[in-house]
Design goal:
The complex is a heterodimer of chains A (472) and B (395). Chain A has 3 domains: 181 residues, Alpha-Beta Plaits; 159 residues, Sulfite Reductase Hemoprotein, domain 1 (2-Layer Sandwich); 71 residues, 2-Layer Sandwich (Alpha-Beta Plaits), CATH 3.30.70.20. In chain A, 32% of the residues lie in helices and 12% in strands. Chain A has 18 helices and 14 strands. By secondary structure, chain B is of the alpha+beta class. Chain B is built from 12 helices and 12 strands. The N and C termini of chain B lie far apart (85 Å). The chains are: A alpha+beta (472), B alpha+beta (395). β4 of chain A pairs antiparallel with β4 of chain B, so a sheet runs across the interface.
Chain lengths: 472, 395
């Protein structure tokens, strides 16, 4: 099968779009790099050049040298911007405090998100980072790239920005760290016109949706995570670029309950692939695992001698629902009791596979602690088919947004609104009945908010009538 | 068409809407999939970790794809990305992938190429000796740390992230390149309680925290902030309206109510909290995202504060190693840190990890009661005897 974009995608031929020549890209020697000092003293940071893990300081220094050796006029942002970035970081270590000012409203015309204003509070010491704004660039679903695109992006960002990236930001975007206000529009123009690429979200809007690797290279994926992520991203471009929400709203798509993009902890709207039929079993492969012919858990534990694989101890006894057993040399699963935790499938991927009648479980309201405390997402819809164009998912999402935009207070995340108004009210809003799957246990207090229509005869009563039966 | 080189490129500030392209979204994923991924999309049967950092995925078509996973710094330069591209062009027909946890994945279809690719990756080092592309991050080990901006680019941090990642991973290299732990361990860093890195469900989370209430910039607060919003931003109602002796509008703060969340500063730049002696790092442990065996769960605060000892955070590194070592030697196969702590009991966790338990670790915010023990099912540790002695129960 193949997936088609909403509109034809521009093929990026780096040779056609490039800014820098090969000579410019290889403009320093290893020897020069060894002897290179940036313009500030950074003893603490230089300590971080040692040790085996990739050193961001060593990396930043070669960018600094490379920029320095470009000819005048070959960067639109100061050539020593990386020097100043490191210099300010060293100063922050010394002071034990950040030196970035609070916010600043900058952006590109017509968008309310995608750019975060950033200014140094010590511009006299580090003039090249006086203005140092971030752009968030919407990553391709599950972060595969062709090098032509990346190289072109590197040229664009080195020319018009600091040349420093985050691959990737916490929400998933490609982060371009540091440019001036003047360069924002030229960058956006070339991003859209030449790289066929848009910005991501920031502020009180839909944040850039993200997804796991899904069916591209994972046998556990129950849904087309990239397609669903792309479709929602494209369908809600307006919500992504123009803040109209009470606060941020994150959507993440996990292909199975293993949850590799952490949607259950990190998204207001968490879509997690699952199945409602039976786990597929290959009994021959089960036997091969038992016989020790195949390493359990795809070899994830092979660095230590854990002894011979024991299916009883390692799979059946660890099943949280106790729904598995060996009978007559065959593995039996009582699928009606299975809660799809994935453990058995993770341990024996060659013997067990998720079912084929797949869809998503939808959970809502996860968030970090600010303000009412951290929340994990709450199960709202146990199962929903997830097939293009995903109208059922969009309809649910829009009902949620409508309620949140109506009722949500400034800077109130969906999960907090649900807490404030109660899960029963939320279920009413999305039009689904209550189900025991949505709670860990029923309530322990009897303070039930009955509604007037729940009670025969309503709430209007006459005190005189009452007094006919009961003297004062 | 080429990337523009004029100062303002092809953008015309006189006519900002001219030829403007908007709302085109991200690049479509399909075009960026290598041919073997396109061909076998949805057909993968199983995978194996051949060695730490090297995976093979096998398709029902018989195709195989080998992935070599490398740890990368999340903060990376154009120079570094170009080097990634050079490698991808040389071995992977110009395709490369990044993972959710900041790893870089190089995929090849020919097993013969794996050794050469590995050798090339490991041969690439910075002049100072650090690997550029360490191979690992698979299976029952420690994979790359997800983290936030810190002092590199944020206005609210209580610590720095990139430096802490470097300091910790330098010490945990063997766990990145090995698979000797009972299960995988996910470490995350967030520089303040805003947690743009959402570290609240990690096996080990390191969180920057403030410990001093905001300083009020009376001079400017009324001009740079919406005072009512700043007041409303406080979750514990510690901020109230006030006037300076000169009659200027400002706020006052009940400092003993402050829980140092920093939400007021997010709303109002005239209420900074950061402080060299006040700020530091809390350590949380035992959270998870996966639904495997046990439900996803929050990380719990196990060390309330450690100093920001830049650049290598020795106290933080030591605590992380203590937890990892105790876990490695005591937990059962497949048991995550949180599952282990719950099985042995948190009192044993503190004993085995040799971490002190203080009143700061007992919740007194909302839903605190849910965390109190309401049974006689506990285990005796030295901490329990100390209580008994203090209460006069034993000598």
């Amino acid at each position: 099968m193949a997936f088609a974009p909403k509109r034809p995608q521009k093929e990026i031929n780096y040779e056609e779009v490039r800014i820098y020549t090969e000579e410019e890209l290889h403009n320093y020697t290893e020897e020069e790099l060894k002897n290179f000092k940036i313009k500030h003293d950074i003893p603490a940071l230089e300590d971080l050049e040692k040790g085996p893990w990739p050193s961001f300081v060593a990396d930043a220094k070669r960018e600094a040298l490379h920029r320095k050796k470009l000819a005048e006029g070959r960067t639109m942002v100061d050539k020593d911007v990386v020097d100043d970035l490191l210099g300010q970081l060293e100063l922050s270590f010394n002071d034990g405090e950040t030196h970035w000012k609070h916010g600043g409203i900058v952006g590109v015309f017509g968008y309310g998100g995608g750019v975060i204003g950033r200014y140094s509070d010590v511009p006299e010491k580090f003039p090249s980072v006086a203005h140092f704004h971030t752009l968030r660039v919407n990553q391709p679903a599950s972060k595969f790239y062709k090098t032509g695109f990346l190289r072109a992006l590197c040229d664009l960002w080195e020319y018009r920005g600091s040349g420093v990236f985050n691959m990737h930001g916490s929400t998933g975007d490609i982060i371009l760290l540091g440019t001036t206000t003047e360069q924002l529009e030229p960058i956006f123009y070339d991003l859209t016109h030449e790289l066929d690429q848009d910005l991501g979200g920031s502020g009180s809007n839909l944040r850039t949706p993200s997804c796991c690797i899904g069916k591209a290279r994972c046998e556990f994926a129950c849904i087309d995570t990239q397609d669903l992520c792309y479709e929602l991203t494209m369908h809600y471009q307006d919500e992504l670029h123009r803040p109209a929400f009470p606060y941020k709203f994150k959507i993440k798509v996990d292909g199975c309950p293993n949850g590799c993009v952490a949607s259950i902890a990190r998204s207001d709207f968490s879509l997690i692939g699952t199945w409602r039929d039976n786990i597929r079993i290959d009994q021959e492969a089960v036997k091969a695992y038992i016989a020790g012919e195949i390493k359990p858990n795809a070899g994830a534990h092979s660095g230590r001698d854990w002894g011979k694989f024991d299916i009883q101890k390692e799979v059946i006894d660890l099943c949280p629902t106790g729904c598995m057993a060996m009978e007559d040399g065959e593995l039996k699963i009582n699928n009606a009791e299975c809660n799809r935790c994935m453990h058995c499938i993770n341990v024996m991927p060659r013997a067990l596979r998720p079912g084929t009648d797949t869809g998503v479980s939808i959970l809502v309201g996860a968030k970090a602690p600010i303000l009412e405390g951290a929340q994990l997402a709450t199960l709202a819809v146990p199962f929903m088919k997830a097939e293009p164009p995903y109208d059922n998912i969009k309809e649910l999402l829009e009902k949620i947004w409508e309620w949140w935009m109506e009722e949500g207070k400034n800077r109130e995340r969906l999960g907090e609104l649900i807490q404030r108004k109660g899960l029963p009210r939320f279920l009413e809003v999305i039009g689904v009945p209550a189900a025991p799957q949505m709670v860990k246990m029923p309530r322990t207090n009897p303070y039930i908010f009955w509604k007037e229509e729940d009670v025969p005869g309503g709430w209007k009563r006459d005190i005189k009538d009452y007094r006919m039966r009961h003297k004062r | 068409m080429a990337l523009s080189q004029e100062r303002l490129g092809k953008y015309n500030p006189e006519k900002p809407t001219e030829n403007r392209i908007t709302d085109i979204g991200p690049r479509h994923f399909w075009d960026f999939f290598p041919p073997v991924i396109q061909k076998n999309y949805g057909k993968w049967l199983y995978h194996d970790i051949l060695e730490p950092g090297v995976l093979v995925h096998v398709s029902e078509t018989g195709d195989k794809v080998y992935t070599v996973r490398c740890g990368g710094p999340r903060f990376m330069t154009a120079e570094y990305i170009r080097e990634i591209c050079d490698i991808a062009d040389k071995y992977c027909d110009g395709y490369v992938r990044f993972t959710t946890r900041n790893n870089i994945e190089f995929m090849v279809t020919d097993y013969e190429k794996v050794e050469a690719l590995k050798k090339d990756l490991l041969s690439r080092k910075y002049v100072s000796g650090s690997y550029k592309f360490p191979i690992g991050g698979t299976g029952a080990g420690v994979t790359n740390i997800v983290h936030t901006q810190g002092y590199i680019h944020c206005h609210t941090p209580a610590t720095d992230a990139s430096s802490m990642v470097k300091a910790i991973m330098d010490e945990l290299m063997d766990h990145f390149t090995g698979m000797t732990l009972p299960a995988h361990v996910r470490i995350s860093i967030a520089c303040c309680l805003n947690m743009c890195g959402a570290v609240h469900c990690s096996d080990i989370a390191l969180l920057g925290i403030h410990r001093k209430p905001p300083i009020i910039d009376h001079e400017v607060i009324d001009s740079v902030c919406e005072i009512p919003l700043a007041i409303a931003a406080c979750p514990v109602g510690a901020i109230s309206p006030d006037k300076t002796p000169e009659g200027k509008k400002t706020v006052k703060i009940k400092e003993d109510r402050c829980m140092f969340c920093g939400n007021c500063y997010t709303m109002c730049p005239a209420l900074p909290l950061s402080d060299k002696l006040g700020d530091g790092v809390a350590v949380l442990a035992g959270g998870k995202i996966s639904n495997r065996i046990s439900e996803p769960k929050f990380s719990k605060v196990v060390v309330p504060w450690l100093p920001n000892n830049f650049p290598r955070f020795p106290e933080v590194v030591e605590v992380v190693k203590k937890i990892l070592n105790a876990y490695a030697s005591d937990a059962r196969k497949y048991e995550r840190i949180g599952d282990w702590a719950e099985r042995i009991g948190w009192e044993k966790f503190f004993e085995k990890c040799d971490l002190p338990f203080t009143e700061h670790l007992i919740d007194d915010y909302r839903l605190a009661y849910d965390t109190y023990r309401t049974s006689t099912q506990f285990k005796f540790t030295e901490a329990a005897w100390e209580v008994s002695r203090a209460a006069g129960g034993i000598k």
